[in-house]
Fold this sequence. Notes:
Elements: E1 4-12, H1 31-47, H2 49-52, E2 55-64, H3 72-85, E3 87-98, H4 105-113, E4 118-124, H5 128-134, H6 140-153, E5 158-164, H7 171-183, E6 188-193, H8 201-204, H9 206-211, H10 215-231, E7 235-238, E8 241-243, H11 250-256, E9 261-264, E10 269-272, E11 275-278, H12 283-287, H13 294-298, H14 304-315, E12 322-323, H15 324-331, H16 335-338, H17 340-348, E13 352-355, E14 358-361, H18 363-367, H19 369-374
Parallel strand pairs: 1-2, 1-9, 2-3, 3-4, 4-5, 5-6
Antiparallel strand pairs: 6-8, 7-8, 10-11, 12-14, 13-14
Helix pairs in contact: 1-3, 3-4, 4-6, 7-10
Bound molecules: iron/sulfur cluster.
Residues 15, 18-19, 22, 24, 26, 64-66, 99, 122 line the site of iron/sulfur cluster.
Amino acid sequence: xxxxxxxxxxxxxxxxxxxxxxxxxxxxxxxxxxxxxxxxxxxxxxxxxxxxxxxxxxxxxxxxxxxxxxxxxxxxxxxxxxxxxxxxxxxxxxxxxxxxxxxxxxxxxxxxxxxxxxxxxxxxxxxxxxxxxxxxxxxxxxxxxxxxxxxxxxxxxxxxxxxxxxxxxxxxxxxxxxxxxxxxxxxxxxxxxxxxxxxxxxxxxxxxxxxxxxxxxxxxxxxxxxxxxxxxxxxxxxxxxxxxxxxxxxxxxxxxxxxxxxxxxxxxxxxxxxxxxxxxxxxxxxxxxxxxxxxxxxxxxxxxxxxxxxxxxxxxxxxxxxxxxxxxxxxxxxxxxxxxxxxxxxxxxxxxxxxxxxxxxxxxxxxxxxxxxxxxxx
Length: 378
Ligand code: SF4
């Protein structure tokens, strides 16, 4: 009987055009490149067949880049391969990331047909001016149409990504975006603040920096998000994630709770068999690879101390916090014993609260999470 659980992340590194703020591993690609990449992905998956026999797959996330730039037949092949090689749990959550301009009705139908049951749309804003500045290829109308199309095809589990703290964004324009996404009745919303990453066009432009909201304004947008979404029936289960009852993203929870996951594709990271490792990031080297498991074979096992730190770092990002019982079960030592000082300091400063079995950040702690989490380094 299989009692181990794993999640799969599949990286599709292609986008139609690079957005002005993006530092993800993504770029444009010809039809031939995409096809060569897909066959390489399938071979990489195949190479894990033996190890995967001991596992049931609890969730799959096809992310990027923009997976919806691939042909629907390519996504179908990928899904067929996974179904052939792995034992999928009956409730396996299978997400694909889509951009509104490339998620056509036909593609969405094909996704549904091949077993994908969750769509995540990179919408970011429902204000045309903001979308243009970000370098996105869709407009407000296309954002709405794509979400409606996914519903028409029968998807009920839909996420929409939105962004705050954009250049020239103000409370009014952000409220329009937030209201629009609430009116569309999607059950899951991820709301992130823009971060200027080195090497992106935004980072290089002084005039963009001048248009950004101040830190106080950014915080105000965050509080507004929390309140407005709570009012609309979403509960916040992680610093940036909000869901209607029963629609939390199972795949993300695997990362936050240090479950095992295997990343397949260019640059994909894994935590598998107590090892952390990442795949090759150079495309030419990746598609000519013969041995896909080199990084895994060469990685050393993660130490108990590093796992404890990650367990706290990631677990405290979730509103429910971390369970003392789960901590003990995982590490055979009491959480209070390992983190006595950090807990006392957090409680004194009102950034941490201990409620029965749970240790979690207070709203104040969420606000200064980087500061609080640094106390959990051993
Ligand atoms: S669509 Fe997403 S991954 Fe692609 S360039 Fe834009 S932000 Fe980056």
